[in-house]
Amino acid sequence: MIPILRLSRMRYTYLLLFLLLPILPANPQSGAKFPNFSTQNSEVKNPNLAWQIQNRISPSIDGQNIFSIQYHTDGRSALIGTTDFYIYRISLLDGSMIWKTEAKMHYQKEFDGPKIFDVSPDGKTFLSFGQTDPNSQSSERYLVMRSSTNGSITKSFTAENSLFYSITADIDYRYPGDESKTNREEAGLSPNWILTIDNAKFIENGKKILVSYKHNMEGPHFYDRRLIIYDSISGEKLNDFQLTADPNSADWTQPAGFEIAHLQFPYQYVNKRNSIIYGNAHGRIHEITPSIMNQNMSMEIVEEKPAGPIVYIPRSDSEDLETKDRQTIRSVAITPDGNYLYCSAGVETGFIQFYGFNLATKKEMFRSTFFDAGEIYAPSNQILIIGGLYSSGKFYIVDTQKGELLFASNDDDNYIHPHLFSVHPKQKEVLALSTGNQIVILRPQGGTTPW
């Protein structure tokens, strides 16, 4: 296992103090504003701006548990993946089933099911994954495109093998050839060259698909990560990128130069910049273009691959973190205008903070005290949707122009699962999993308004 960055001993009283402190803007005049609240005291102060649960729906999904959920682009229906490996499309008027289809897989973890990654802008297809051998846990999961009309697979993309090759760390996960493959199978060894899909999203108005992969084995998946761009019509691979550390923070005796494990690999495609912004485990946020991706894959050895220029390095305020600029990036969001970057960063055993950075002025707008933000979405230049890092965390909606908290979940009537929600493609509305396998619709008060 990869060594984790050494932390000094946490002092309980210090951590408790910061749990109670609010989020404070570094410079209120530098761009977006963030409201003053904490994870322990998250009350909506302006009821006129508050979002509310407008509707509760019991979906017709045969009593199964929801694993993933995604709005369809029509805004009137949703796609749901369940833990018995079925995919449903339901009406959001009454929760009735439109269709269901099986997506047979072999369980790879305790809570598992078909992930609905994204829906095409025209609404005709959506992205999920298939498995080369549904009866084998060690077989790779690959990208598939399914019809929104009935859930059938319309396109299967080629399963990807690892290209990871490091001289200094003495690791080679590249496909070893048919003879070595047979020898490993006969010896009862799992293949160590397999990648599995991690996430996928349509980009450039559906013309391309950006996909992230990780190694299929425990351990190597902490550092063997790839980003690949495909043509959505032909399935042709257009660009490819192997995750690697930047030279100034790399320890090349470790795989890909990382001293810290990648429990997450957050990234966003920025349409107005024609680039991908991603965060790594060393606390660096990089930007890569198709040209950098091509340079990266032209190099065989991971130590020689470019990581892309660094955009931002959030620094920790924790006194218990010895190296202030070496905290794992947990999640990244970019506003649609491409101007503001938001991220969650920190170490799970210590201190996690939330940051805002102005990409135009290259200045930090604010940083929080202790705040365990996980998933972050910026559906507009004004609204932020934030889910807690852990399943026990909270769910928030924030107005960054007014600096107001609009919604905060609780464990009672306003419970929202911090990881299972979807943003309406056109209007101010969020679909989320609540208690009792119900899904709820959140909106501002009054009529519907566009993002």
Automatic annotation (TrEMBL):
<protein>
    <submittedName>
        <fullName>Uncharacterized protein</fullName>
    </submittedName>
</protein>
<dbReference type="InterPro" id="IPR015943">
    <property type="entry name" value="WD40/YVTN_repeat-like_dom_sf"/>
</dbReference>
<dbReference type="InterPro" id="IPR011047">
    <property type="entry name" value="Quinoprotein_ADH-like_sf"/>
</dbReference>
